Amino acid sequence: MLECPCCLLTSESTQDVLRFFWPDHDVRAVLRPDGPCSFCEASARWLDPARLAAERDEVLAHARRPVLLAYSGGKDSTAALHHLRRDLGVETLAVLFDNGFIPPAVLEYAARITAELGAELVIDREAPGRERLRAGFARRLRVAFRGPRNDVCAVCSKTFLRRFHRIARERGADTIVLGNNFWAHSPHTSGGAAPPWMTASWSRELADGATLWHLNLPFASRITRARTREILDEIGFHDARFTGYTSNCVLSDFQDHVRARDGQPTDWGREYLSLEVSAGYLTRAEALEELGRARGAADAALMARIERALAP
Ligand SMILES: [Zn+2]
């Protein structure tokens, strides 16, 4: 078995995560006996911190105020909020979409930290969006809880983005900051399309002709996991300590719980962490530590409650 010395991919990885994130391109990592995998090599070639900082500054300079922050109450978007307010001084509207599975402690923390950092907070509980989210997730659960097409966080993200677009339009904003530590474009994941470097922003034209800009701020500003931890320590982050990969929502825990219960383990964690290493967010050692971190036993009563909530 070959193992990449840079990320965590091995020659036995199914690479489901690469197919999930880039379904339109044949994105594959080729493992080699004597060096980094082809994915890591390409990421290193196209990543230019100075160019990313310039791109970030240009997007924010042109953005109408307030800039909308897609705020989950989790670690990465909290660090992004801090960076926007304290380092960049940007007038910020933080929008937290309550999908019904956000613990009260996260909502209370969001109210406190936005007030402290001088950002406006909107907790969005739009009923049709929530219902769509619940129905979509339940449908995916019922079809099959396996493979690359069933990631619960992706179901949420799509619903959130629709809501963020609407709220941005209502508030006259044209730029949405995301707490995303991945790139928006790179030649090796965009089918060779230009420009020949990694970017952190992308635009989308809405039905009414308006253009909305999106900026993956942690990636653009090279905010690593280590830097995120420093920021969170400084501001006293409330960590709800769920066992999954998110720090603010119980659904990813539930997804892990169902997969383990049904004997459908995936290599998702190892592959996803490999992307975070490629993006420069994690070191390989941090990713290995994360992978080996013992997952706490699932809270049986909580899992049963979620299952009932998601039933058809
Ligand atoms: Zn690699």
Walk me through the structure.
- The protein has 13 helices and six strands.
- It has helices at 16-21, 38-46, 49-62, 75-87, 104-117, 127-143, 152-170, 217-220, 225-235, 251-261, 268-278, 284-292, 300-310, and strands at 67-70, 92-97, 120-124, 175-178, 201-205, 211-216.
- α5 (104-117) links the parallel β2 and β3.
- The longest helix is centred in the middle third of the chain and has 19 residues, at 152-170.
- The termini are far apart.
- The mean pLDDT is 86.
- The chain binds zinc ion.
Identify the notable features of this structure and list them briefly.
binds zinc ion; single chain; globular; 6 strands; Rossmann fold; six-stranded mixed β-sheet; 13 helices
